[in-house]
Design brief:
This is YceI-like domain protein. With 227 residues, the chain is of the alpha+beta class. It is 18% helix and 45% strand. Strands 1-4-5-6-8-9-10-11 form an eight-stranded antiparallel beta barrel.
């Protein structure tokens, strides 16, 4: 006579467990994450230093703090939404000579990428980006960029940058438009780079609940000072 009672008790425990875990799983799948923003120009001022020289990426710059991340669409049952991750673990520098950006390199610590759900971050690092094997992503400018058209009065300008992106062990040439701001003693560059994750060998597990689009973007904002 005790067996039905035991069975019902087990079922009740399972239901309660699912009820408590369900919201966590749903949150991990549906929260929008943390996205790297574009330029903030509200408190920009006129440039106080010449644009020529070597500019080094700095970690903190107020609203224009350096960060690099990704945004991809997730296809969920009955809806489609975007998910983003970002990191401030970014280093590098650019060189400007005669108003032309002649060289530039950026290195991103992929292990530092964060959304707003820690379990999702761990999953992305381990099963999607394989950061144990590919701990960094890099971008190297491959074509000189004329930046003489960028104003020195605190207003942003736009340039087109071409370079080699190395992600997940695969290197490909990419081209994108970037907003450039000269403000005070800083140079800030921000923009998005469209990418197809399959081109870089980034596969995602086949989950029943969610599927990640192949096409997405890298979100980039770099604050720099001359040293």
């Amino acid at each position: 006579m005790k067996k039905p009672f035991v069975a019902l008790t087990v079922v009740a425990i399972i239901v309660l467990a699912l009820a408590s875990v369900g919201p966590i799983v749903y949150k991990a799948l549906t929260d929008p994450g943390i996205k790297t923003g574009g330029l903030h120009t509200g408190d920009a001022s006129a440039a106080t230093t010449d644009v020529n020289g070597t500019w080094t990426i700095i970690p903190n710059a107020g609203d224009n703090t350096t960060s690099v991340g990704y945004t991809f669409h997730e296809l969920l049952p009955g809806e489609s939404r975007s998910t983003s991750g970002t990191t401030h673990d970014v280093t590098g520098e650019v060189t400007v000579e005669g108003g032309t950006l002649t060289a530039g390199n950026v290195t991103v610590d992929v292990n530092g990428l964060q959304t707003d759900v820690e379990k999702r971050d761990i999953n992305v690092r381990r099963t999607i980006l394989h950061t144990d094997d590919y701990p960094t992503a890099t971008f190297t400018v491959s074509t000189p960029v004329d930046i003489t058209g960028v104003p020195d009065n605190g207003e942003p300008g736009t340039v087109t940058v071409t370079g080699m992106l190395n992600l997940h062990g695969v290197e490909k040439e990419v081209t994108a438009e970037f907003d450039v701001l000269r403000t005070g003693n800083r140079l800030v560059i921000a923009g998005t780079v469209p990418i197809n994750r399959i081109d870089f060998g980034v596969e995602t597990p086949d989950f029943v609940a969610a599927k990640v689009d192949e096409d997405g973007e890298l979100n980039i904002r770099l604050a720099m000072e001359k040293h």
